[in-house]
Input
Amino acid sequence: MIKARKLTKRFGDVEALVNLNCNIPQGCIYGMVGANGSGKSTFLRLCNGVYRPDEGNISINGGEVFDNPAVKEHSIFVPDELYFLPQSNLERMALLYESMYPHFSKERFGELCGAFKLDASRQLNTFSKGMRRQAATILALSAMTDYVFFDETFDGLDPVMRNLVKGMLYDDVLERGSTTVITSHSLRELEDTCDQLALLYDGGIVFESDVQNLKTTLFKVQVAFSQEFDRSLFEELDLLAFNKQGSVANLIIRGDSAKSKAIIAGKNPLLLEILPLTLEEVFLYEMEALGYSFEEPTPKGGNPV
Amino acid sequence: MFQIDRFGRVPIYEQIIDQTQRLIASGLLKEGDQLPSVRALSQELSVNPNTLQKAYSELERRGICVSAPGNGRFVTGEAARIVGESFLERLSEIQQISEELCAAGVSFERVVQTVKIAYGKESKG
Output
């Protein structure tokens, strides 16, 4: 279990993370999304003891992370900027990792080098950018740690490799109850892979949720009536957005879809259609409901929040 | 046996539940049949095992399958009945489509004829 309490990290005047609280349970694949500069990478670096928190604390299984090798030998981090020893090759890096990670698996290392078709004896500085990412991913998965952190690593892998890596992460979840934290800009990717999702905004977690709950508690309803109507007709529902074009209105509702449907059906609509939202829409509406918006400072006209 | 639509709006979790119910309704999955393991499915479909676990738990809650620890998950004797009942809810879809057809001026007889064909009570054409 990864626990962050009032986690704060500043860089000069910039507050990268402010009073962040979160619990990441064991055995889950936890996805983090957020705009550039929202603090995702800072959070991962704090999780791995690269930075010392300015305030608050972060612990893994009860142990503070910073400067604590006993905790850090159970987690591995694939950062966005990779580091390899100068002039080294994968074989040499594997030796280095093996000396630090007690459960490092040579067998898996060999298997992965084969699957990724990487020559472990070739110098890493002759590798392309994508191949270096693959190399770092191979090393991370071979370390067989309980916690794995990926900073946008998935975005750099091709689809075949992504499936291979995902399959391996799923296996680790089932086999050893390992925990993975992934940041990404691709909501699509995270939706398939993760079971928990968190949205970071301005240095804090705006919300976190089960992927299932996210998609089932928020939905879009298309509705039309023979008589004139406005937002007030739906007072008993938790409306996140109301957008009327001509006689048809689009509602974004939070709650149980069957119950909400029954309530609206009771008002004798001419048209009533329930549409699940894409994860992207869920995030946009949640952000709007909180008064945030990626593109514009105020919510769109006709769409009061 | 499952086809996951990653780009659709329906959550993967619901897709698994729906498709299992359809397989049972169509008779392709029968009482005592074993459902694929979470492990096999997560590799095959490249879907998070926790998601699949939750879908299976929901099917168990509905009484459609039971898990025998160490042996896997099996379709129950009640599954066909439970799934059949859940399909009654879909009558409202027929109502909705019928209302649209009615509004569009399709005759009552044509609609009834179509339903009869579906039930095998009348031949096509």
Notes: The radius of gyration of chain A is 23 Å. Chain A has two domains: 2-202, 215-289. Chain A is about 35% helix and 30% strand. The domain at 2-202 of chain A is CATH 3.40.50.300 (Rossmann fold).
